Amino acid sequence: MNGEEMRTKWNRLSAEILSGMAEWQAQHPKATFREIEAEVDKRLSELRVKMLLDVAMLSEEERWQAEGEGAVCPSCGTKLEKKGKKKRKLQTRGGQEVELQREYAVCPECGQGIFPPG
Ligand SMILES: [Zn+2]
């Protein structure tokens, strides 16, 4: 996914959320302020998590392209090989658990030189 695709995806997602909320209003014309607030929060938090993950993943991809591609092992100088993605669990401030994937690379010669560093 690139920045342009991300924008397109978000436009679609937010349009769905906004029209979904308008439909909800039509079905719940007598909802209390608290009920409306809970509904808006629920819908917006879904968008929030998706945006959070998309931005984090895109940055991760760019980071790999900028620093990981062509990176060499600090011990023997061999070019690192991409080893796929490693999952990492994180919690949002709202307490939701999300899973991020990070590119992961090791040296094919000595097994060292892990990317990302640290
Ligand atoms: Zn090595």
Question: What's the helix and strand layout?
Answer:
Layout: H1 3-27, H2 33-68, E1 81-91, E2 97-106
Antiparallel strand pairs: 1-2
Helix pairs in contact: 1-2
Bound molecules: zinc ion.
Residues 73, 75-76, 78, 107, 109-110, 112-113 line the site of zinc ion.
Folded structure, characterized:
There is one protein chain. It is elongated, with a radius of gyration of 21 Å. α1 packs antiparallel against α2. β1 and β2 form a beta hairpin. With 118 residues, it is α+β, with helices and mostly antiparallel strands. The mean pLDDT is 90. The structure holds zinc ion. The site of zinc ion (ZN) has 9 residues, from loops.
Mean pLDDT: 90
Bound molecules: zinc ion
Radius of gyration: 21 Å
Count of helices? Answer: 2
The count of strands amounts to: 2
Tell me the overall shape: elongated
Low-confidence residue ranges: none
Q: What is the terminal separation in angstroms? A: 26 Å
Question: In this structure, how is the largest beta sheet organized?
Answer: 2 strands, antiparallel
- Arrangement of strands in the largest sheet: 1-2
Oligomeric category: single chain
Helix content: 40-55%
Q: Which structural class best describes the helix and strand composition?
A: alpha+beta
Strand content: 15-25%
What's the order of the H and E elements? HHEE
